[in-house]
Amino acid sequence: MKHLILTLKLPFLVFLCGFALAQAPEAGRRSGYDDMSRETRAMQDDEMSNPGTLWVLDGEALWKKPAGAAGKSCADCHGGASSMKGIATRYPAFDAGLGRPLNLAQRINACRTGRQQAAPLGYESRELLALNAYVAVQSRGMPIAPVVDGETKPFIDAGREIFERRQGQLNISCAQCHDQYAGRKLAGNVLPQGHPTGYPMYRLEWQNLGSLERRLRNCMVGVRAEPYEAGSEQFVALEMFLMWRARGMTLETPAVRP
Prior knowledge:
- This protein has helices spanning 2-22, 38-45, 52-64, 74-78, 104-116, 126-137, 153-164, 174-180, 212-222, 233-245, and strands at residues 93-95, 100-102, 185-186, 189-190, 201-203, 208-210, 256-257.
- α3 packs across α6 (126-137), α5 (104-116) packs across α6 and α7 crosses α10 (233-245).
- By secondary structure, the chain is mainly α.
- Helices cover 45% and strands 7% of the residues.
- A hairpin with a 2-residue loop joins β3 (185-186) and β4.
């Protein structure tokens, strides 16, 4: 009898657990910054010590530099950097012409090919990361505020499905690490909640600035899953869900992490 009761309750318990993971309370959210050492937090907080500042400075130069057959710079269309204030808090954003969302790096490349008539910058290239960081830093300290409407919700939902799906030979989901076991230690490191508050960010492990997609690829390789193609709709959807999950949290770009 007891076994029968447990059997009947199991599907309901699984449903409740899944619902709880998807609806993590906003009050309990923590940035990875909160789990870092005092020294690493100080590195992020001081612009002169933050290695990401080097990419921001490169991005400022690229912003003003004419490119492509059109001979236009980003500044020619958008003016000063202040025009980018708040932009990074809303990306990935839906592109009506394409019928799908683009992340900020893809939007920069779309402007290069469409407006400047220049070749797109390579994924994870120093130039693309620099421009991305320069645009994003204009929103530093602002709350993440993704647009949620009839156009974006299907992609956010698709990202949620990827986040909660078990993947790879280890059969682990993003949600297991970053919701269920967040705060515990893995190989001596605290498992963060996985909020994308500081990308592009400088990781001491990489000795380089990197995008959120790079981090997601690392996670997929870590669970022995086949990563999606660079710039794929799956990566963008997952990024959309993560930004929705971090809504209201403060943008820290360029963050520093171990």
